[in-house]
Amino acid sequence: MLLGNYLQLVYDAEKEAVKAFNRVADKHGDEPDVYQTCQLLASWSEAHISDIQPELQLYPAKPDTTAEKLERVMFDNNEKGSFALLRDLHDLWLLATEIDICWTIIRQAADGLRDKELKDLCTKLQKGTERQIAWLQTRVKQAAPQTLIVGV
Amino acid sequence: MKQTRDSIADIWGERTPYFDEQWPERVDERVTEEPDNWIQAACVLCSAGCGLDIGVKDGKMVGVRGRSVDAVNRGRLGPKGLHGWIANNSKDRLTRPLIRRDGELQEASWDEAMNLIVAKSKEIIDKHTSLGIGFYTSGQLFLEEYYTLGVIGKAGLGTPHMDGNTRLCTATSAAALKVSFGSDGQPGSYSDLDTANVIMHVGHNIASQHTVLWMRILDRLAGPNPPKLIVIDPRKTYTAEKATVHLAPKLGTNIPVLNGLLHILIKENLINPGYIAAHTVGFEELKNIVAAWHPQRVEEVSGVPEHLLYEAAMLLGKTNTLVSTVLQGVYQSMQATASAVQVNNIHLIRGLIGRPGCGIYQMNGQPTAQNTRETGADGDLPGFRNWGNKEHINELARLWNVEPDTIPHWSPPTHAMQIMRFAETGSIKMLWVSATNPAVSMPELARMRKLLTRDGLFLIVQDAFMTETAQMADVILPAAIWGEKTGCTTNVDRTVHICHKAVEPPGEARSDLDIFIDYARRMDFKDKDGAPLIKWNTPEEAFEAWKECTRGRPCDYTGMSYAKLTGGSGIQWPCNEKYPDGTPHLYTNGVFPTAADYCESYGHDLDTGAAQTPDEYRLIDPKGKAFLKAVDYQLPHEVPDQDYPLWLTTGRVVYHFHTRTKTGRSKELCNAAPDAYVQLSAQDAVKYGIKDGDMVEISSRRGSVIQPAMVGDIEPGIIFIPFHYGYWDNNSRSRAANELTLTEWDPVSKQPHFKYAAVRIRKAVAQDDEEAQAALKHMEEVITNNFKMEGA
Ligand code: SF4
After folding, report:
1. Residue B237's pLDDT is what?
2. Is any atom of ligand 1 closer than 6 Å to the C-beta of B80?
């Protein structure tokens, strides 16, 4: 059974999300709403991690599937400013979307296994991920025209 | 000089006890000379919106008297209303345009000033599009002026960067109404106070902030069947002293207390299941969230004793009429929108809405804040239209005869805090400030000063006085104010008043309407057919244009006219063919403006502010039912720690308005509250070795101020500083409360958090300046008499 590998994948991705949200919060701390909200969203991913943990005991992963690759391609700029912010929010969106599809995939397996607990957990955690994505979209839309047209 | 009462010494005046009848008249008047004639207007020094007449003699304002026919005040006026008008006659009015040349502000002609603004606008648009231009207006202008500004911004320039200082005082009111009911618009009427059995004030020191509304409550308290009062406020204000139950939560814990009240109502089955089922959605989710807030947990988090919470809940749960009022203690604190919504929820789950005696007043800070919101001079679209709804954009495009894409609707309009951020980063290159003073009223003033004086920012200030902000301007436009121009104002209970021009403006000062129209003409803004975009020249023509914009919308003005507004009382919108005399209560049939095609907003995540998309909304279209929404508690973003061990909260005093540009020019109001101060508890005073009247230095991570100490009547651990005082009349010390406050805001309403910050205090070096000491002593005497009336 490879369900554990997907649980591990989403577990690692949520860990990345905690790091990434906090990193964006620090880096763009001059944008007060980004600072506050990214910290809040990091705390949600943090909570997701502790929720997944018991499931990983139940369905352990076979080694070597992780989200490491994702981290390498994303957040690769050290710039500050509006363009860098837009790029970072974009990258956070990619990461969160990756997590979102994980929940869909895992829930399918939970359905097949008639594991109601895991299914409910997926539904609950996916809701959190969707809210993260919704904020990222809202903020990206707000930043995009000004950044791309006026710059600075 | 003649006055019917001394409102400085006795703020609320004599009682006229009553119950369940028209509030008896009492005409308050104050004139310096006997007027030749009286001109109808309304007071613009708070959002109560009292009807008054301006007394004129030899072309000069000489006083005011309340209008006995007016439904809002039945003739009464408070200290600000009776005294504030004197500012019009002030010697230091701005009377000529000024342009900064070689670093100095120099007199210029209107042509020079306006041509410079136009040249600058065009240069910026050429290089950066109109996204390089932003507007920051007020809660002090007239409806006609905001609407004109709104059309210029949205259909002339097409910039989304347009907001008012209403963001600081009233944005949460609008946001909370949209969350619960689908659109802005206050459900109730002030007349609800005449019969309500229970009245609840949440973070609203009404005795101080809306003195005439408080007179109405005092008259009820003195009459038969006095109402029970619930007051939620961390300070023992005068309002709190009259409370049947006073809940004093720790700063930043409104959500636990309000969730706790909802918890008890649901648990004790003091709800109206029929109303909930027929007229609301979301009850189960609300129930789940508040289920965790049992009174014991509320006490642990907020410090409000279980039994008091219970007592308050019983009052709320057993009454069949309830008026709730909400203000800055909620709007400027953590989880602002979510907390204000909980008050709406109390009314909804009990079915106490849409009939006499049942009102929710999500109060506004400023007098014409409601108009800023209605007309789209803030971050909204005119007529409570929905920026996410393409058809609403098309409607406006048809009305203005422009292409829909002219109107910036690709993302929410930029809120004030973000406009300032864009100015700070250099992305906004021209900022046009009208009738407000961000250099004192915005949070974190050191940052504000830096960004307003930033190289490359062209700052236009349109004002009547040389404010702290004007001093930094590149161009100053002298503006006519209330009394010197005609226009309408709308207060919290949707009452529209006309303010007629009583006197000529001083020197070359011009009305804000004239200035905006002049700009539009010089910029040559055209509609699709090449006709001028702004098709009006006078206030009345602007009002007629505005009426068309409101047709069929919740704030329908089509049944009003200047003639109809003149002579009698103000009129409550909607006023149209169906309701020719206006409408005291909205939602009488339990139908709310939430239908997907009609609503003003598709909703937001209350924790993050994420916008719900139109498609998502259509899936859950409540089609006229109200929303019940709740959230869990979040800790404030800055809490006291070792370095900064105290909480700071800021607020107002009864005698002043905004940054005192007007009230600071009345000798009597100034004498009554001459200076800022810091209020701290006796325990903290001992702990820090501070005595009454000592000068104290208060510092936060952002700045520091020096204030005389006022000891008592506040919880240990909390200190209070009024925010009105800046530097135009006294720059001998750092004293503006906003030197200390935080740059952060509510995720939904974007209203800044003025109600908490971590600070430290210490005794400042003794002052030996005798004059300062004498002034201080005087102030202390006055404030010792009155300080309980100050605040939030
Ligand atoms: S209550 Fe408000 S509107 Fe009425 S007189 Fe006082 S300041 Fe003016």
Report:
1. 86
2. yes
Distance CA B527, CA B521 (A): 12
pLDDT at B570: 95
CB contact under 8 A, A149 and B421: no
Task: State the pLDDT at residue B788.
Answer: 41
Interior/surface letters B683-704, b for 16+ CB within 10 angstroms, e for the rest? ebbeebebeebbbbbbbbebbe
B43 CB less than 6 Å from ligand 1?
Answer: yes
pLDDT at B672 over 80: yes
The pLDDT of residue B790 is 40
Looking at per-residue pLDDT, the higher value among B280 and B657 belongs to B280
Q: What is the pLDDT of residues B26-44, one digit of tens each?
A: 999 999 999 999 999 999 9
**Ligand 1 nearest-atom number relative to CA B80:** 7
Residue to mutate among A36, A141, A142, A149, with most B CBs inside 10 A, is A142
Strands B646-651 vs B757-763: parallel, antiparallel or unpaired: antiparallel
Bridge partners, B50 (sequence order): none
Element (H, E) at B395: helix B390-400
**pLDDT confidence tier of residue B713, bands split at 50, 70 and 90:** confident
Q: Compute the average pLDDT of residues A5-27.
A: 94
Residue B368 token pair: 């014409």
**A20-34, A56-70, B86-100, B612-626: segment of lowest average pLDDT:** A56-70
pLDDT band, residue B157 (cuts 50/70/90): very high
Work out the angle at residue B7's Cα, subtended by the Cα atoms of residues B6 and B13, and round it to the nearest 5 degrees. Answer: 95
DSSP string for B719-763: EEEES---SSS--SS---GGGS--S-B-TTT--B--S-EEEEEEE
The structure's pTM equals 0.94
The mean of the pLDDT values for chain B is: 93
* Structure-token match 């700052």, residue found: B459
B752 vs B334: CA distance, rounded Å: 9
- Rounded Cα distance, B280 and B226, in Å: 31
Q: Residue B367 CA: which ligand 1 atom is closest?
A: 3
Q: What does each C-alpha distance from A145 to A75, B121, B370 come to in angstroms?
A: 21, 19, 29
- Of the residues B4, B26, B29, B43, which should be mutated to test ligand 1's pocket, given the most ligand atoms within 8 Å of the CB? B43
Record: contact B610-A138, CB cut-off 8 A:
yes
Tell me what the mean pLDDT of segment A87-98 comes to.
94
Whether residue B129 is predicted with pLDDT greater than 50 in this model: the reply is yes
Question: Is residue B210 lining ligand 1, measured as CB closer than 6 Å?
Answer: yes
Q: What is the mean pLDDT of residues B651-678?
A: 89
Give φ, ψ of B614 to 5 degrees: -55, -40
Local confidence band at B652 (pLDDT 50, 70, 90 cut-offs): confident
Structure tokens at B597: 């095609």
pLDDT the model gives residue B332: 87
Amino acid at the residue B202: V
CB-CB neighbors (< 8 A) of A149 in chain B? 128-129, 131
Q: Which atom of ligand 1 lies at the shortest distance from residue B211's CA?
A: 1
User: Are B132 and A142 in contact (CB < 8 Å)?
Assistant: no
From the list B409, B443, B415, B200, the residue with the least C-alpha distance to B316 is: B200
For residue B427, give the nearest of A36, A82, A134 by CB distance.
A82
Does residue B641 contact residue B675 with C-beta atoms inside 8 Å?
no
For residue A118 the two structure tokens come to 């895991």
C-alpha distance from residue B169 to each of A80, B153, B177, B326, B342 (Å):
32, 22, 15, 12, 19
Chain B residues whose C-beta sits inside 8 Å of any chain A C-beta = 128-129, 131-132, 160, 410-412, 414, 417-418, 421-422, 425-427, 605, 607-612, 634, 637, 743-745, 747
Task: Indicate whether B769 pLDDT > 70.
Answer: no
